[in-house]
UniProtKB/TrEMBL annotation, chain A:
Lineage: Eukaryota, Metazoa, Ecdysozoa, Arthropoda, Hexapoda
Taxonomic source organism: Drosophila guanche
An individual GO BP term: DNA repair
Location in the cell: Nucleus
Protein name as annotated: Blast:Cell cycle checkpoint protein RAD17
Molecular-function annotations in GO: ATP binding; chromatin binding; DNA clamp loader activity
Gene3D superfamilies: P-loop containing nucleotide triphosphate hydrolases
Biased composition regions of type Polar residues, renumbered to the chain: 35-57
Annotated stretches, region: Disordered: 19-84
GO CC terms, sorted: nucleus
Pfam families: Rad17
Family membership noted in the UniProt record: Belongs to the rad17/RAD24 family.
Keyword annotations: ATP-binding, Cell cycle, DNA damage, Nucleotide-binding, Nucleus
Primary localisation category: nucleus
TrEMBL record, chain B:
GO BP terms in the entry: DNA repair; DNA strand elongation involved in DNA replication
Function: Subunit of the replication factor C (RFC) complex which acts during elongation of primed DNA templates by DNA polymerases delta and epsilon, and is necessary for ATP-dependent loading of proliferating cell nuclear antigen (PCNA) onto primed DNA.
Pfam families according to UniProt: DNA_pol3_delta2, RCF1-5-like_lid, RFC_C
Keyword line: DNA replication, Nucleus
Protein name (database record): Replication factor C subunit 3
Keyword Nucleus among record annotations: yes
GO cellular component, one term: DNA replication factor C complex
Oligomer status and interactors: Subunit of the RFC complex, an heteropentameric complex consisting of a large subunit RFC1 and four small subunits RFC2, RFC3, RFC4 and RFC5; the RFC complex interacts with PCNA. Forms an heterotetrameric complex with RFC2, RFC4 and RFC5; this complex has ATPase activity but is not stimulated by PCNA. The heterotetramer of subunits RFC2, RFC3, RFC4 and RFC5 interacts with RAD17. Interacts with CNTD1; this interaction facilitates crossover formation.
Gene Ontology MF terms in the entry: DNA binding; DNA clamp loader activity
Family: Belongs to the activator 1 small subunits family.
Amino acid sequence: MSARKKTWITSAFSEFNLTPTTVDSEGAPAKRTRSAPSAATKTRSKQNGNSTLTLPTASVDLTADKDDDKEESEGCRQPPPTLRANWMDSFSPTSSEELAVHSKKIGELRDWLRHCEAVRRKAPAQMCLLTGPTGAGKTATLRVLAKEFGYQLQEWINPVDCEVVNALGDQRNGESYTGSHLEAFRSFLLRASRYKSLLDAQNKRLLLVEDFPNILLSDSEANFDELLEQYSESGKSPLVFIVADAKSRGLNISYKLFPEQVKAKHRIEHISFNSIAATIMQKSMKTFCAIMQQKENKALYKVPPSTVVDSIVVGAQGDIRNALINLHLSSMKGVPNMPTKELNVSVASKGRKRKTQSTLKSIGRDESITVMHALGRVMNPKFTENKRLQHSPEVLTEAFRTEPRNFVNFIHANYLPHFREIEDVVPAIHDLGLADCMLNEYREDALSLMGLNIAIRGSMLANSAPVSGWMPIRGPKRINWQPLATLAEQKLLGTRYAGTSKGIYATEYKSFVKCIAAKRPEEMPTEIELSIED
Amino acid sequence: MSLWVDKYRPRELTKLDFHKEQAENLRNLCKQSDFPHLMFYGPSGAGKKTRIMCLLREMYGAGVERLRSETMTFTTPSNRKVEVMTVSSNYHLEVNPSDAGMYDRTVVIDLIKQVAQTHQIEINGQREFKVIVISEGDELTKDAQHALRRTMEKYVATCRIIMSVNSTSRIIPAIRSRCLGIRVAAPSEAEMTAILQSTCKREGLVLPVELAKRVVDKSERNLRRALLMLEAAKVAKSPFTAQQEIPDLDWQVFLRETASQIISEQTPAKLEKIRDRLYELLTQGVPPNLIFRGLVEHLVNNCDMSIKAKTLELATEYEHRMQNGAKHIFHLEAFVAQFMSIYKKFTSELLMDEF
């Protein structure tokens, strides 16, 4: 127990980070803080090197992304002379020029850090929120810039067991209770910013929260807002939250924890990253290949053929971390070239003739398709020479099987402008209606998929002559009940108002009550008296 | 000054203006110590709610008229909070669960449990049960109705349910069999005219016979609508004249215009405009089935005999689908599109014949 305690303390204050590495390797899992890459990651990478090249942990992954970025821009500069076991680590970017992130975004973050610097005496507890798709280089950018500004990065990592935390604190006999994660998180925020590491010369710290305690997400009673409030009052260093975008709102942390009013209240700077553009990625892949061809790496790696590299870029879809991992695999010596498959999209490449894109056959991300993209395929279906649909409805259905209702609503909101004749509309809307009925049947899982398929097929095939042209996509309409009665009208109705259903009120009362209430405002006081008598 | 509808609403069973025989029966029902669950059914504005309140007064005395309105919050299994407005006295509670939309099941179960688990404090001379009045029971989803069936049996010792529904056809048989059905038919035109006249007399106004007839005609034998209409007319022009204008229901006017737009042009672009209009009606809170019905009526009145049958056939199909589906607009739109298509075909054939 005591040993565990110790690890926790050390991590929280991040001072003994070098000493307890032995404890670490022994397997105490509750390590919460990771200090700046300069100190801790190096030791860890050594360890990794000693043991095996198994999962290089999340942090290493992230830096790997950066590596790519850096390499692409930098090219010839190749610092690591020794053959490192941790392949990812050796390529992490060290300066902002090496990042693959768009320079504007880097500039934004740098401006924020400058601002922190400027107000360091008066208001040290600045907050910032970085969002963006996975593998967009959020963490990488932050690490590089923190180094540039001389900040020591301290990161919160969710403890594996909260028992440790409990035994440490002042609560009785170490029993566990649910608040402990939150408590630990709170004390991390408030204390880690305050005390500096004994072993580190840098006295500026930057807190990083990438791993949100689950309790903040699942329990409405855990008040994140309050926590931020406390931090902005008593925190001593800038705090950065990094949140990866999620498609659904339920999973979207930035939406859940950082609503607009919270951001405004605590002046949280929000910088959202975009996924990495294909051209930049291409460049970074090239630099990366160049690095691998340097003599110390040559023994291990070969250069993959350009089609494979292109396919990796396509398959990664802006996720540079993923691209790097794939590149690593495909450039190992002794591994056969990875098979690629052609996508049925052709892309115009700079002025030259169109070339077909291909993606890795078995590895890499599934092609994820945005709603906008899919809607385009549904609204303007393309046919191959033999009169078959180029994009199979099944593939589209499969892509949206998790949210069929949403996609059907999108089709409904957008299908009409694409039709020329009312006769064509009839089968389309007929199928949409059928889909609606099927989606409403929740007792049978398969029906929702079928419903979606019917809706997609219906609207693809019904349109005999689609209208082409630029048509902005509209979101599905939500029906919000408007507040039904004005105050004067409510007074006129008295308690009756509460007893009347919305439907009855709208159909029966509304139009008449409106004219009655409008015509005699001077009588209002007497009305109130009378209704009290009632 | 409250609305005429409320001001002159009969408070006691003996003072009801029509269906007097039925009122007598209801009084007899109250004389017994116990009575079954009730279901009042009949068209809108026929006086179901009035009769329910009269009945409660007969049972519990004037105390039931001390109403307080309250907003109750329910938590659904999916952790969503639903707010429902209720009106209650010490003896009864009136609720409209259909306002909770698809979460009405939670409302029904929780509410009845809450109410039914507490006994009446005052026992002497009172009934030993409370009454829950569920208005618009036919708007309840099937799920909620099934939930209701169970709770009805379980808590029969401490609570009675009185439902007010428009049509029993949308109530599941299990509930229909557990309730004593009481039909409240719409008042006849003569009865309505008499009520309008007596109301005006009590207000000190003179109502021309012709105007009374016009209001009755226009209100479609809906007494509530007639009284509101008359009051609105009075506000517009105080001493009544026989030919004065009677205000219309906004949404009906709007719907009529929508129908004539459908007749005027049959293109996808027009359909889109129609959809916007339908959306507007839905956001106003007009129930989709009323929209559907109004639309069909206007369209059928304005089209040729040869396509009337087809129109009605399509209407039944899409109305049925609308009940099964969740997005009403899909089915409304589908019906409009179908109608446009057959109407267009019809007019083009007509043109061909002329040549």
